[in-house]
């Protein structure tokens, strides 16, 4: 990594989030080396000390698993997010994964969903079902 990126936390964080966005873009693809890219990105995030970005990565990967209907991976991501957000910050991420995957919440969420849980659930599920429809139609 060039020295200018190593020393500027805002730039480093922006680069990481851009790489997470690229994983989201490629969520439906089989040929995108997602797992390898995610492992490298996770290592870079940990090295940079960007804890919140690792949670964002986990959320992006959960989106991919939901799109691909990989229920085992979705189920595995939920306890990881619960454990990582035990302190309260970003605790709603686990709820979002439930919503994306079309799963009921295991326990009542401590999050206050501004539009209510049913609306929020639909809003997070819609991008997953849209991507799944794109896959079915070959788009």
Order of helices and strands: HHHHHHH
Biggest pleated sheet: none
Taken as a percent bin, the fraction of beta residues is under 5%
Cα Rg: 16 Å
Q: Using the alpha-carbon principal axes, give the shape.
A: globular
Q: Roughly what is the average pLDDT, rounded to an integer?
A: 88
SS field, number of helical segments? 7
Q: How far from one another are the termini? A: 35 Å
Unreliable runs? none
Give a count of the beta strands, DSSP E runs of length 2 or more.
0
Write a brief structural summary.
This protein is 71% helix and 0% strand.
Q: Can you walk through the features of this model?
A:
By secondary structure, the chain is mostly helical. Helix content is 71%, strand content 0%. It has seven helices and no strands. The chain has helices at residues 3-7, 9-25, 34-48, 51-67, 71-84, 92-101, 117-137. Helix 2 (9-25) packs parallel to helix 4. The longest helix is centred in the C-terminal third of the chain and has 21 residues, at 117-137. It is globular. The protein starts with a helix and ends with a helix.
